[in-house]
Structure formats: C-alpha cells, structure tokens
Write the structure tokens for this entry.
Amino acid sequence: MRYNIAVISTLDGQDYLVETILDGLDALKQDQAIDYFFVDEHSIEAAQKADLILLLSNKFGSQYNLAARVDRWGRTAYIDGSELGKNNRYDREIQRKVIEGTYEGRGAINREMLKKCALYFRREKPYSHNIIPLPFGIERRYIHYQQGQKKDVDFACIFGQDKYPPLRREATEFLESWCHKNGFTYATKHTSSLFNRDFRSQRSQDRFYDILARTKVGISVGGGGFDTLRFWEILANNCTLLTEQIDIYELGSSMLEYQRIFQFKNINEFEVQLEKLGILLKTNEWKFDRDVDEYQTILDTHSTKARVLSIVDRAKEKGIL
C-alpha cells in the first residue's frame, strides 16, 4: 500500500534530523513507496485526510498552531530533533531532570506533544515514557566512497567546533601528536577553516566527503548532543569508526554492533584504541573497507529511507496505518 504523508515542518530553519527525514521521504517517493506533501495554510483539509502526519521540531520549535488546526493528533508522529547543547549532556543533574520530565531547558521532552501525539520520536536519550529513538541517518549526499577506491589518509578527525565537549579538542591534539610520532597520515582541520567558513555549501561538503572517502579511520565525538553527523558520515564512506562510547538507541540494542566500530570513554581509552588500530594499519591487517557485506548492511540499515520506514512501521504497530 502506498501511504500519503503530510509533513508539518519547523518554524525557522532546518536541522540535521529534519534533513534526515526529508531525504528519506524523497528517496521513498522516488521508489514510489509513499507520497508526501508539506502542510501550509492552504492544505489543512488535505492534511486531515492524510494517512500519517509528521510534526517536525528543532531548536527553533515547530508549527504547533498549524498542527492544532489539522487536529489529527491520533495520526500525528512528533519528531524531536532537539539536544541539550554545550556540555549539558554530561551534567548529571540536568540528565536526571530530563529523565524525570521536570527539565524545562533546551533539549527537554515536550510533554504536551508526548501527551497529544500518537507517536513521539526523539534524536537523543532518554527514551522513557514510550519515546522511540530516531537518530540521524545516512543521507545520500554523504556517500562519496566508490568500491575499490584507494584509502590514502590513515586518520581523519575533523569537527566544526571543538569547545563542546572538550574531548573533541583533546582527541584532535592527541591524534596529531601520536601520528607525528608513529608516522601516520591524518586530516584534522576544522571544517570552517578547511572550507573557508562555508561548510554548508554543496561544493564545500563535497570536498569534505571526498576526504572521508579516502580515509581509513574516522573519529567521532558527540557535540551538544551525542548523535552527530560525523558518526554517520564516517560510516557512509566505508571507514572504520573510532567513536566516543556509543549512546544511541536503548540499552542492549544491537543496531550498531559492527566489526569496524571501536569505542572509547576518555583520552586514555582513545590512546589504547589508536594503538590497536595503528598495529592493524602497519601490519596491513586493516581490511574493514573490503568487508562489502557489512558496509552494505550499514548503508541499508541506517539510510534515511530506513529511518522514515521505521516511523511507518511504528505507525502500523500502533494501528494508525
């Protein structure tokens, strides 16, 4: 069955989870699996007849008044792309309040939408109160790697900013020193300096993805939230992923159990993992890029298309579709 989905977009600007959803919707429309349209003042009636309504939200908020006019909360899925920001995800008191539902700041659970909407998806933990995890996905534009491409950059550790959290800067500085000492190649410039402060342009992003396509090991540390584009961009380009300890999905989930993922909690564990990877690289035992099956599984499981289909599947389970 081909579903008709109404999309109520954000108030001002987009964010990366919004882009994940829109890329997935577009891919599914091209596959003729769904139809979708954006809700505005002139399409209220059409939205009321849609099979499913996606209410997108980011740090600027959402068009709650438009959703209220549609007034089909029993068919509405709320998509929460917020994050705590800065270093707040490390603050135990803030985390406690978020879990309890008493936190009122940026990145708080929208309790009104949780009560009203049939489904509530959220980019960041907690996933209590029937909240469903929905991390970023691998957008089609990320993938610049081509099968058999030469990987001539050993390590890439590139962030847009490294103030939040400090582990970003610590990892970058340690990696540069370690690579100099051990004779490995690396790329560590900030995206802002690497692309003349125009990282959002398509040309700049293409240059960045070209670097990742040539990289063997990409390094990811979360920012204002744990889920970060870098995590998915690295996997998208058939790299080994060296990441801050994964805090995506529910406890015990196997969604990110891949041979090519190495994790660390702090700079000491980061060094240990670097030493392991260094041995693999120097002894030519690093072969993760040749594991075509695992790479394809990652692309299929974590594509933006798969993210949107996970929303559709939950709506089916709920009896909405």
User: Anything to note?
Assistant: The first strand starts at residue 3 and ends at 8. Residues 40 and 66 are 7 Å apart (CA to CA). The chain has a mean pLDDT of 93.
